[in-house]
Amino acid sequence: MQPHKTTPEKNSSADFQAMLADHVRDPSKPSPEGIEPERLAVYTRLVRNNLRSFLDLCFSDSSELADRELWQHLQNRFLIEARPESPFFNDIPAQFLNYARSRESEEKLPDGILAMMDFETALLHAEIAIQPISDGLWDSNTTLSWQPAAKLTHYDYNFVDSNLTAIEPTPSTILTWRNRDNEVYYRAVSGTDVFLLEHFSQHKDTFEHILQSLQEMTGGQSQDIEIWLRESIDSWIKAGVLFPEINQEKSI
């Protein structure tokens, strides 16, 4: 009986692919045998350029404000050291951000740039997150939930007021989300909006329960609270940040 050759072939193929991947990440490493140098060079250049272009696209605003030489250096080192291997291309920006955060000394991007990169990663998340379908209808006892695409983030910097053209050392709270028409939005929020959005980003709740809690805190004296709460919740539902969950008992 002839020996089974499946395992050696698989190992050989795996070794070849590993060597090819290592060479593409770092062309100073040995290249696998059996590929013409010209074809290998074209393939390597294509993969690396595609990754750079993808990162530049995802971080189109922060990369413009970063030192270009340092930005390109970090892209190169990211390929070599971080070894991004996710099968999902959309995971790579977050991996690059984490890598950039881990750098020190001369390789460290300014904190304001890193904050803006985090914001742009949130925009990408808003673009691709899977969201439940909702008709937007609700009443005082409807359970309201935070849309998966939405993120509320506190930054030590403000880049929204300049339309992403400058970074000011002023604290800001930024909301990113996608509406029911699949349009991605962002805006700075403050005051009572921050209070309400932070609550929903951590808890499901109903209008009635929140209203009761607020009335207990204020002694139940102000009717303005009910008007503000209803208008605010309704506006965030229409915007697509909150979604009313379907009551299965009512839908049957």
From TrEMBL:
For region Disordered, the annotated ranges are 1-36
InterPro entries, sorted:
DUF2063, DUF2063_N_sf, NGO1945-like_C
One annotated GO molecular function is: DNA binding
Segments spanning the bilayer are: none
Instruction: Say yes or no: keyword DNA-binding present.
Output: yes
Family annotation (Pfam families): DUF2063, NGO1945_C
On whether DNA-binding is a keyword of this UniProt record, the answer is yes
- Superkingdom of origin organism: Bacteria
Q: Where is the Putative DNA-binding domain?
A: 16-99
Q: What is this protein called?
A: DNA-binding domain-containing protein
Q: Which organism is it from?
A: Neisseria montereyensis
